[in-house]
Amino acid sequence: MSAVLSLPETRGKLTADAPLAKLVWFKTGGPAQWLFEPKDIDDLQQFLRDLDPEIAVWPLGLGSNLIIRDGGIKGVVIRLGKAFGGIKADGLTLTCGAGAPGISAASMARDHAIAGMEFLRGIPGTIGGAVRMNAGAYGREMCDILESADIVLRTGELKTIPLAEMGYTYRHSALPDGAVVVSAKLRGQSGDSEIIAAEMKRIGDEREASQPLRTKTGGSTFKNPDGYKAWQLVDEAGCRGLTIGQAQVSEKHCNFLINLGGATSVDIEALGEEVRKRVRAHSGVELQWEIQRVGEIL
After folding, report:
1. At the topology level of CATH, where does 212-294 sit?
2. Cα-based distances in Å from 17 to 1, 26, 77, 263, 295
3. Is residue 23 within 8 Å of 60, Cβ to Cβ?
């Protein structure tokens, strides 16, 4: 992928033809034309303001729930580092940098006896990604705890978006393309740290027992259709253990695809489409991808 782009000056780090496979859970996919790791919010704002508006930007979190196609991503991939990973507690409110992992926010809430955020223990990505997709687990979603999110628009403008303007639906927000979530304000309820810790342990133990966490995977592959469980539809369609190339439907949890070691992103995406086809033929239900698929097909 050609790295010839006219890019603004930055205090952060810019890498041309940057490998992305190592940054995503599936460990597959092509490079970014450019990978930008901003120094701080001001650096991100200036970079986006000065960047040619025709050049696409795409934010990358921890790389869960994501297939990067084998042709890589054109334009600029933005990855938020330690400067965006802080978490502060104030009463029943957490202010979280977008780069903070969900589990870190859950732990901070536990330490300050803030209840209602235990489900973040089961969110494998960053707070920024969780805000963008209204991530959820164990009966709760980001829309249940979000007060507001700070985003940097493609123009470089820093804007605070209250919950009411997020346009949240199931695993979806109305945030504009190219906008980068940089922080979020979350609110819980007064709780007991020991009870919160016990619930977090229950969630952790349940995930470990039921999900293929120690494999190269992408998390939940398909959204749960109204009135159905995606994993059950996949199982009933006979797809448990189904393989294409080195991609496999997990035998442990049918709503997870795994890379057996040598899979390409083409293998993984093709397997997902084959599963959708078989579920449609068996039950008439149309599964929708929860995993985001981005980039160029080779």
Report:
1. 3.90.78
2. 7, 19, 11, 21, 13
3. yes
Gap between the Cα atoms of 198 and 193, Å rounded = 9
Tell which CATH architecture fits domain 13-82. Answer: 2-Layer Sandwich (3.30)
Kindly report the backbone phi and psi dihedral angles of residue 46, in degrees, each rounded to the nearest multiple of 5, phi listed first: -65, -45
pLDDT, tens digit (0-9, with 9 covering 90-100), for 102-117: 999 999 999 999 999 9
Structure tokens at 121: 């223990």
Instruction: Name every residue whose Cβ is closer than 8 Å to that of residue 76 and which is 6 or more positions away in sequence.
Output: 5, 7, 32, 33, 34, 35, 36, 51, 55, 56, 57, 58
Q: In the chain, what are the domain boundaries?
A: 13-82, 85-195, 212-294
Strands 140-141 and 136-137, bridge-based pairing: antiparallel
DSSP 242-279: -EETTEEE-SS-TTEEEE-SS--HHHHHHHHHHHHHHH
Residues facing residue 217 across a β-bridge = 258
Give the active site residues: 171, 220, 290
For residue 16, count other CB atoms closer than 10 A to its CB: 15
Q: Assess whether pLDDT exceeds 80 at residue 5.
A: no
> 3-class SS at 55?
coil
Query: Both tokens of residue 198?
Result: 């016990």
At 235-271, the pLDDT tens digits run 999 999 999 999 999 999 999 999 999 999 999 999 9
- Specify the amino acid at residue 134: N
